[in-house]
Design goal:
mainly alpha, 19 helices, globular, single chain
Length: 446
């Protein structure tokens, strides 16, 4: 009980100290990591090493992606490509609802692509669409983030729902997981674009005062196809890599797709292609973009790594064992079981930050309890996967790398990110849970 209380107090400390008392989030995260580690009884002589390891492991996963994403963002801005792509998006979706357009784009991209990678790739587009339509940058970027987060958590082939389905014994029913994931995602996406428009209008970012650059130093803007390429190259390659397990391909081609479809290589190829967007002095113009991207990525990297350090400390505590022991002692079934499933996944997500880890931990606990709770058919177990995914949406805050990716690439302050992105992801989880319970009720009637 003391450990649970300490975790909640640590999370509250991070939020209050940075939002109210203006303590830098890096310091707040490190102090919270130390505090939880000490109360949990982790070895003092290894605590600093654990914090550094958590920081480094997250940097190993997305550090270079953040840098390359910032470089691509600078390319899209300086070449005028972002403006061209924004015009194409607005021709397709219209100029009246840019937030809706970004939510739909995010939801589509989030199915095969990690939400972190997707947001890094598309953030510049979200800003230019907002400026082009004279609407809030925060609303556009929040919609994009919500759409990405919904399908990333609920729809295979992203790893979270696949791992959850595997742990619960329905790996052979991934088609069913995809169908139900799309059904649960739909009201989720509608919610996030509505919420983003209402709350985003109240948030001011530095980009709201900027105006789309028409690349005045160039005589000719790149074509729409050329402008889309730095965005589509990584998305297509990552999608092919994620789908290769569902297609019978020769081993050599599988290996090639795995290499080209890794986020790092896919983004690096997009950077190489970007030289073509500058017909005059491409080397010099790209050097400027690379310098700008490196400069912009620094603050994001520091905060993402600090969030990883806090998450690593929490994973080293016996939280998962405590919840597993308690769950095995309880006897619940039906809708109450789905509610409890949601609560456990939401606890793990809120406590340690990683959506995928929350889904894996929760389903590992639930696997031996399904039959006793009355969940035996593939449809019923898939609904449990949806309840787990709903909990894993709830909530994204300071110990989640995605929180810092969204806030930093959108230009949101920590305080604004807590009252927008964090609150929105909480509402997304609740709406997904309500949809899951409704589908369960329909299944019982049928």
């Amino acid at each position: 009980m003391l450990l649970l209380l300490t975790v909640f107090l640590a999370i509250a400390f991070i939020v209050v100290s940075s939002a109210v008392f203006k303590l830098h989030p890096l310091i707040a995260l490190l102090l919270a990591s130390l505090g939880v580690g000490l109360v949990a009884g982790l070895p003092i002589d290894h605590l600093a090493e654990l914090i550094g390891k958590g920081f480094g492991e997250l940097m190993a996963k997305i550090g270079l992606m953040v840098v390359l994403g910032c470089i691509i963002g600078a390319v899209l801005d300086r070449s005028g490509a972002a403006l061209q792509v924004a015009e194409a998006v607005l021709r397709l979706f219209g100029t009246q609802r840019p937030a809706t357009a970004m939510a739909i784009i995010g939801a589509i991209v989030g199915i095969p692509v990690f939400c972190d990678s997707g947001f890094i790739i598309l953030a510049k587009l979200g800003k230019v669409v907002a400026r082009r339509t004279q609407t809030s940058v925060a609303a556009s970027c929040l919609s994009l983030g919500g759409g990405l987060f919904a399908t990333h958590t609920l729809v295979p082939p992203t790893p979270g729902p696949i791992a959850a389905a595997g742990n619960l014994g329905v790996a052979s029913s991934l088609g069913l997981v995809i169908v139900f994931g799309l059904l649960v995602s739909l009201p989720n996406v509608l919610l996030c674009q509505w919420f983003a428009r209402r709350v985003g209008a109240t948030i001011h970012t530095p980009d709201d005062e900027a105006r789309p650059k028409a690349a005045s130093t160039q005589l000719v803007l790149p074509s729409t196809a050329q402008s889309l390429a730095p965005i589509l190259i990584p998305i297509v390659l990552i999608t092919l890599a994620s789908l290769k397990d569902f297609m019978p391909l020769p081993p050599a081609l599988n290996t090639l797709l795995s290499f080209l479809g890794s986020s790092l290589i896919a983004l690096l190829l997009a950077v190489f292609y970007s030289y073509r967007l500058f017909p005059a002095q491409p080397a010099q113009r790209m050097l400027e973009c690379i310098r700008q991207g490196i400069e912009q990525s620094g603050p994001t990297l520091v905060l993402v790594g600090a969030g990883g350090a806090f998450g690593a400390v929490l994973k080293a505590t016996p939280l998962a064992d405590m919840v597993s022991h308690w769950m095995q002692q309880e006897r619940v079934s039906g809708a109450a079981f789905l509610l409890l499933t949601f609560g456990i996944a939401a606890f793990f997500k809120t406590a340690q930050g990683s959506t995928t880890s929350a889904m894996v931990l929760t389903t590992s606990i639930l696997a031996p309890l399904l039959s006793s709770a009355g969940f035996t058919s593939p449809v019923e177990i898939v609904l449990v996967v949806m309840a787990v995914g709903s909990g894993a949406l709830t909530v994204s805050h300071s110990n989640d790398a995605y929180f810092w990716v969204v806030s930093q690439f959108s230009g949101l302050s920590a305080n604004d990110a807590y009252r927008s992105h964090t609150l929105m992801t909480g509402l997304q989880g609740l709406v997904s849970l309500a949809t899951t319970l409704l589908l369960y009720a329909v299944w019982l009637v049928l």
